[in-house]
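Q: I have 491 residues here and want to know how they pack in 3D. Can you give me a structure?
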Amino acid sequence: MPGENKRFDTPVSSKEIASAFFGCYDLDMRPISVGGGRRGKMATLCYIDGLVSGTAIAEEIIRPLTDGERFCGSASEPEIISRILGGVVYGYTAKRRDVTEEVINDMLNGFCALIFENEKSAVTFETRSPDKRGIDQPREEKVIKGSKDAFVEVMKTNTMQIRRKIKNPDLKIKKFTVGQKTMTDVVMVYIDGFTNEALVSEAARRIEALDVEGMLLTAAFEENMVDVPKSPFPQIITTERVDKFCLNLLEGRVGMIIDGVPIGYLVPATLSQFMKVPEDEATHFIIASALTLLRYVSAAIALLLPGFYVAVAMYHQEMLPAKLIQSIIDAKQSVPFPTAVEVIAMLVAFELIQEAGLRLPNPIGETVSIIGALIVGQSAVEAKVVSPVVVIVVALSGICGYTMPSSDFGAALRICRFFLVLAAIGAGMFGLAIASALLVYHLCTIDSFGVSYLSPFAGSGGRHVRRALFRASMTVKLEREPELRPGQKDI
């Protein structure tokens, strides 16, 4: 059928390789006399220019292959292959391949292939080109007290960083190939005997079941892995910090890394995890607990404050003190628009300013944000287009949203904020209460790999709520969350 990948389940030959890469200018094929001179056996060296290191091929592969002393007395191709696999060539990996499909996959992953036509076989050597970007500090997640290394686009570099932090043979890294067209490598990382076996099996099952054309962007992975893809709330923890990734592995979670994507994925994800940052473990437990509580309060303010103001200003003025309501009335007298229009317009303007700041280059983006927040807001108040109270409400709600450690979770709060405002416009506090209840109900229906999204607030009888809100002293030994312990089968 059109669009399906071609299969090359045929014996290996240079003709098959040339047919597979027909029209590809970056395919290089050159004959090599293995053993050198006239007595050497002819073979064909194939590789994809740009994916391999020319220096590595010349020094580690071609030089030993053309050295006659290394293959002295090797009259047949099976003997030559046996000597190559036995270490005659400098390459640190050597694999025998008897199927063209295997050779193609190796070449696309930075290997060069030495093809023996008579034997219908090939030996592939790993000669990847060096990394294009070195390990740098995280750009999106600010590090205050913690490791400054971040994930990069090269999978082997990422797994190396994890191995450096968790030096344990029980750290298992299993590889999968995903994407019908891109054939992207995806690895699953977990600690054997420590992570819930049912969680590991479920994560592996979902990775193997992924049916996508390509795996180049995060959405192709995230939306096909989660339980409720239509929910705006993130159901997979994403991070570019290696230390955060390893901390979650030590809590019993399963990690996943995609080749070419400098982000680590962790499951299961719960609401309480989106309120935590690695610095909580590096700060005094009293300060860390206070900051965690502050994030929960900030989330409530970011979500409910605009809707609450609309409900009170339009329907329930008696809920406010007399002096405050008088101040609001005085500021509102010269504004031509109703409260509902003001709040909706300011929320939209806030989103526009934020989007402009994200899309523009960093220096210009910061300037646009400052101009939009200060000059435009102040000018709108002085021109009596909006009231000062609305500007304060929207600004406070926006600032509280920025305290969320996860940008994906903060974006979900901003989306839900609009629906709560519309509910408050329609039915005041009753509409706000009903919309909030529906939101909580929606969160209760979400499971992340068999774990309740609101865990430990729901689904565990409330026994572990304290650990979600407060961080205990490091001198106190705490048990892991029940859902992440080995032996649990209800994933």
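Q: Anything worth noting?
A: The chain has a mean pLDDT of 84. The CA atoms of residues 113 and 124 lie 4 Å apart.
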